[in-house]
Structure formats: structure tokens, C-alpha cells
Amino acid sequence: VKVELTKTDTDSGVMEKMHTGAIDVVFLLEEENCVVSGGDDGYLRWWSLAEIDEAEADYDKGILEYGITMQQEVRIVMPGENNGTKLPAHIKHVARSKDGQ
Questions:
Q1: Which sign does the torsion angle of CA 83, 75, 69, 4 carry?
Q2: Where are the beta strands (DSSP E) in 1-101?
Q3: pTM for this predicted structure
Q4: Is the confidence at residue 2, as pLDDT, over 70?
Q5: From residue 39, how far is each of 42, 70, 73 by CA, in Å?
Q6: pLDDT tens per residue, range 25-56
Q7: Which of 22, 67, 98, 101 has the greatest number of beta carbons closer than 10 A?
């Protein structure tokens, strides 16, 4: 691991964790040049492979985080509600069909 990737808010420039909770799924979409991650927060998020590839820590300043821009996100919720609130699904696995759907 050469750097800890973080999500950069495009409006404020603030760096945040990519997900809240565990990240259990990471896979490469070669045809879209993206990496997709998902986990306990119920989000699937797309990240630019080019940005990940250029990420470098600033060892002189002791900064090991590098902010990248999220390309897309989808929230997956569990069926039902808890006091009127949709609960996030805990994403443990993602499958794609042979036709890419």
C-alpha cells in the first residue's frame, strides 16, 4: 500500500473516508477504467483508476492520505424500515452478468 485513498468533497475540498464502516467489495471495471467499492454503509462507489494510479503520499510532510474524486455512487437499502428510515444494506458481494448488466 503506497497511500491511503480518501474521498475529496468537490465543493469544499475536504478529504473524508471513502466509506463509513468496513469495505467488503472492491472490483475493477476495465471497460470503464474504474474501481468500484462497497461495504457496510450500503453504497457502491465508482473511482477513477487513473486518479488511483497517480496517487502518491507526501512523505516529506508526513501525509499518507491522497484525495480522489468519486465518479458515481448508488445506495442500496434493505427491505423494510426502522422508525421510518431505510437501513443501508451491508454489501458483501457484487455479481455482473456476462453482458455487463
A1: positive
A2: 4-8, 15-16, 23-29, 34-39, 43-48, 65-68, 70-75
A3: 0.79
A4: no
A5: 6, 15, 12
A6: 999 998 899 999 998 999 999 999 998 888 88
A7: 67
